[in-house]
Amino acid sequence: METRSPAYVAVLAVIAGSILMVGSLMKPVELEPEPAALPTQADSARLQRIAQRRSLEDMAEYFAETASNAAEHLVHLEHVGQTGIVWDDEGTVITSNTADPLPSALQVRGMRGTVYQVAAPPAPPESPAVTLLASEDLDMDSVVHIPAMLMDRGKWLVLAWLNSSLESAFAPALYLGFRSIQCGGRPAREVSLSMTPESEMAGAGLFDLGGRLIGVVALCDDRYVALLPESVDETLVWNRGFPGRLLAQYGLRVASLTDREKQYFGGDEEVLIRELWRGFPAETSGLLPGDLIVSFDGRPVTRPDDLQPLVLPVARQLLELVVRRGRRRVTFVLPAQANPETSGATSPQSGLIFADEADGFVVQSVLEGSAAATAGIRAGDRLLTVDGSPVRTAAEARRILSSAKSNGRFVVVERDRKRWGALLD
Questions:
Q1: Coil, strand or helix at 290
Q2: Less Cβ crowding at N or C end of the chain, within 10 Å?
Q3: From the centroid of its chain, how far is CA 99?
Q4: Structural contact between residues 204 and 217, judged by C-beta atoms closer than 8 angstroms
């Protein structure tokens, strides 16, 4: 049998050992995993701000797109500087009333720059919204209304209007429901929002994110509110009726006597002049709040509707009105066709506002629950007369009003451009 020399075996052993050593050196070393670095508080805040910014940018882009789509139903009133809404397919445009009377004819411009001629029928001075009637096809789609009761609170809405450059402007707001208010002496419903409409938004539309109309920004007494479309419709119907036309053309509001007023005035079937607007024909003719209308054009007046011929076309230029003032009967003459363009203390064409001399004195405050508060008198009103007698000082007013009188005191108060009367018990 063949045998190997010890030297040969030793060489083989050395070679095998070398191979094993090299193999062990080339084997991958398993490293311990390092712990992941946690983000710092500053990094977390930065990431959150980035996410919020992206979300807000996406929302702002969405609101801007909604406003741009809504602007297709809007027009800009030239020389008035506010927005109008295309209300129906018959060329009716709705906008907010203004502190100064609107001219009877004006121009409106759509988002595409097309100019339309519209007429502004007379509206009562305190009406929150007014109607403009186009003389031609507006070539614009009217808005789609949605009842507010179908909206969920907390949803986003967009106020959209046109600026003077015919660019759509917008302001987002959260819907908080709606509430009943008094607007221009009449009940209305206001959309409650997370922001307050401003004067630059006059006539703006309030839209949901689907482009449907929820409200109209209108001047309600001395502030801008978003009125529900149905409240706007009710206002316009009243404006077109006899009471609204009488107020729009003559600045005159009348009413039947209440039971307490019958006791105070000692009358039964007469009609009370409740309110007059300064500068309008009824006031400039010399009539006063508290006058009782006895006859009109020779016919007895026992209810407000007996005065309807005042707002109807007649052949004569002047009409005769007889009133009872205290124990006297006084005759006044009114124009048969009061021109709404020249009515009022403002000249819209010239931009001049004419102010009468101040008289009476300003009410500083009104106690809650008092007879004055119940009658609607508030701080800032100017007290003119008590029981037909002018008051010039606060001391004189306190003396007269503090003296007992079984059938109450009838006061005349002025606020803004209107004068109105109320019986204080």
A1: coil
A2: N
A3: 13
A4: yes
Q: Is the dihedral of CA 51, 52, 53, 55 positive or negative?
A: positive
Distance of CA 126 to the CA centre of its chain: 12
Rounded Cα gap, residues 85 and 292, in angstroms: 41
CA of 73: how far to CAs of 112, 160, 208, in Å? 11, 10, 14
Kindly report the backbone phi and psi dihedral angles of residue 162, in degrees, each rounded to the nearest multiple of 5, phi listed first. Answer: -105, 135
186-218 per-position pLDDT tens digit: 899 999 999 999 999 999 999 999 999 999 999
Burial of 367 from C-beta contacts in 10 A (0-12 / 13-18 / 19+): exposed
Q: Report the sign of the C-alpha dihedral through residues 414, 417, 421, 425, in that order.
A: negative
Tokens 């106020």 correspond to 159
Whether 261 and 163 have beta carbons less than 8 Å apart is answered as no
Distance (Å, whole) CA 247 – CA 311: 10
**333-365: per-residue pLDDT in tens?**
888 765 444 444 333 333 333 334 446 678 877
Whole-number Å distance between alpha carbons of 421 and 56: 52
Give the count of alpha carbons within 13 A of 51, CB side only: 6
Phi, psi dihedrals of residue 394, rounded to the nearest 5°: -65, -35
H/E segment holding residue 130: strand 129-134
Looking at residue 24, what DSSP letter applies?
H
Q: How many residues does the chain have?
A: 425
Residue 419: which of 239, 283, 236, 232 has the closest Cα? 283
Instruction: Show the DSSP H helices in 120-228 as ranges.
Output: none
Q: Any bridge partners for residue 277, and if so which?
A: 418
Q: Under a CB-based contact definition with an 8 Å cutoff, are residues 209 and 154 in contact?
A: no
